[in-house]
Structure formats: structure tokens, C-alpha cells
Amino acid sequence: MRNFILFIFVNLLAVQVSLLAKDCYVSSDGKSSNLGTLNSPWDLESTLEGKKKILPGDTIWLLEGTYRYPDRTSKSAGYIVRLGGTRDKPVNILPLPGVRAVIDGGMTIMFTCQYLYIWNIEILTSENFTMTRIFAAKGSPLPKDYNRPFVGIALQGSNCKLINLIIHDNGNGIGCGNNSKNSEIYGCIIYDNGWKGPDRGHGHAIYTQNEEGGKVVSDCIMTGGYGWTMHAYTSPNEPAHVDNYLIKNNICYNAGEFLVGGANPSHNITLWHNILYGLDMRVGYSAPYNEDCELKDNLIINGQLYITGYKKVINENNRIIGKSDKRPDKPQVEIFPNNYDKNRANIVVFNWTKLPIMQIDLKSFLKTGDEYKFLDPKNFFGEPIASGIYDGNSVSVPVKGEFTVFVLMKK
User: Is the pTM of this model over 0.85?
Assistant: First the structure.
């Protein structure tokens, strides 16, 4: 009886704590002295730094606007985040539904953060629209005359999720090292990050390392930029690893190489159903040996697949279509529904015959009467490429070239 009463008490307490979870609001002109309500929003800086009472299960809502971090030097870490939740009650940060919230100047999620989920925010550095991104300095260190924020989003906390973010025109897109174990990067659109030196391009879409736990990179769209696309890498004598990765359903095109490997031996590398157009996939780099990797159902068009130094390799159903290879006879379409947003999907069109307009069958995703729109990933908030109300028939969508990527949204 005593244990039963304790069980009831613990569960009632859990319900009470859950009910106490609150919504907090911030705006670009909010004040630390405000109440954190919709009509009296806080400022973003003090809220993310943990100067407000944010508890597990709480949600921070961003009102529409641009949140420009005041330090515009290259040493800036952007907005510092010191928040966290629990496995059952994460802290969520996201814009109000239908709202465009832009962070200008990046953000760094500190080591102390746990179970923090960040959704649907746009992250950029506005100086990169007007200042040069071509520099005279060689090598990876940031040029001394960079003179603007570098960080897109730096993830140092563990058990965190970056969901459906739009990250572009930063020095680096996403950086997440060994400490960000058991974290997930999902559905992010990452493009046009980095800079060009006389030796090569620098700055990557994703620069990542991992040792303990696992790391998932899934359903992202990555394109453009100056450096590598996926750069899961360790340099010689660096105390870091490239281990325990699940990388799947990503779409990368017209961008730098896709690398998973480095100078230290890697193990437990899994790549499933990634689609690359115009770039190579490299698994393994300069390590004296690697342990095990599994590659299944990846498609590489106008690029090559390199698997280097692995003791155990599972290599199944991977297709490589080179520039001079014969194309399939019929166009194809692949649809990737979004696991975190039932109204969203990534679409890849293989327009092998280079038709100006494609007929796309959407019955696996849309229902009759659904309102839909096709969006350009690099102009997510711009005018739709095509839109309408679904009537059960194939949808006409204009396309360019043999490979096109869309984000499909429905209401």
C-alpha cells in the first residue's frame, strides 16, 4: 500500500509539473524588464542566456522580426544559449506559427544545455549580402579582415535537436563537435555559407565530430557555399572523433564534397538514401584504418563514391550516374515527408528528359482539397514556384535542368 500511495503521488506530481509548463514570448524590441507575455515580451538575449525562469517543458515563442546580435566582430559567438530541459520535457524555441523570425549574427548553444529543441528559425549574417567573401589569406583560420560575425549555429550541448532551421550566408552553417552527443540535425535548409581563399573554399554547411552516443543528420537540404557540404572530419593530432553517425535522406546539390572521415579511425558510420548531385561522397579520409560503415540506397549523380580504409563495409544498392552515363528514360520524383511537420515534405525531381514542366503525382502526401505550394529552398519565404488546391490529379510544376529540389507545404 505504501508503494502504491508513493506511485500515485509521484504521478500526480508529474502531471502538476507538466501543467505548470508555460509559454514565454520574446520580440526584437522586447525588454528584460517585461513580463514575458505576448503583450509584454522579453528581449531575446537575456532570455536565451537563462536570466529568466525557464523550466523544463517551457516554450519560448519568437515574434516576427529580425533579432540582430549587437556584437558584429568576427570573435562574436552570437546569442549565447544556456537553457535546457529533460528527456520528457525539453525546452522548445520557435517562431509563432506563420511568422518569420530571423537571427542575424548567429547563436552558440553552450555545453550545459540539455534537451533543447530549436525549430523553424532563419539564421544569417547580413554583412555577407554586401561585404566581400573573397580573401587573400590561405588556410582554415578565419581571415583577419573578415570583420563580421562568423557563427551560424554552434551546437555544444547534448541531447539537443535543430529542426527545420534555415541557415545561410554565415561563415559556417552548423558546427557540432564531440560534446554535442546524442543530438539531431533534422530538416534544415543550409546554403551559401563560407568564404573563398586563394587555396580553396572555407566554411561548411555542417562541420561535425562525434565520439560517445550517436549523432543524426537527416532530411536536410544543402546547397551552394564555399567549403564542404558535410564535413564530418578530424585533423591530425586532434583529440576528436568521427564515430557513431546516422546520416540519411539528405539532399545535397551544386555544393562542396560530402565527407565523413578524418585522420583518426572511425567506426559505426551509417549512410542511407542520401541524394547527391554534382558532388562526391567520401567515406574515410587519411586515417590509417577505419572500422565499419554501412552505405545503402545512396544516389550520386555527376559525382563519385569513395570508401577508404574500412575493415568492414556494407555497400548495397548505391547508384552512381556519371556525367557521361546514360540517363534513365523516364523522369522520376522522390518525396520525403517531414517527421516533425506533417504539412511539409522535401521533393526531388529527376527531370532526365529536361522537360520545362513536370507532372508530379502527390497523392501519397496530399488529400483532395488541400492547399499546397512548391517553394524554392533558397527562397523559402518568397513567391511559390507553383501553388493551388489539390484535386487528386497530377500537379504541373515548372522545372529547370535535370535536377530540381522543392519544399512542398500544405495547409
Answer: yes
Q: Give the architecture-level CATH label for domain 332-410.
A: Sandwich (2.60)
* Angstrom distances, CA of residue 29 to CA of 34, 52, 64: 11, 17, 11
Name the E strands within 180-331.
183-186, 189-191, 195-196, 201-202, 206-208, 215-218, 221-224, 230-232, 245-248, 251-255, 258-260, 269-272, 275-277, 281-283, 290-296, 299-301, 305-307, 310-316, 319-321
Q: Which CATH superfamily is domain 20-321 in?
A: Single-stranded right-handed beta-helix, Pectin lyase-like (2.160.20.10)
Residue 182 contacts residue 213 (beta carbons within 8 Å): yes
Identify the CA nearest to 280 among candidates 262, 253, 245, 314. 253
Nearest to 150 by CA among 108, 89, 122, 113: 108
Grid cell at residue 388: 493551388
pLDDT tens digits for range 325-366: 999 999 999 999 999 999 999 999 999 999 999 999 999 999
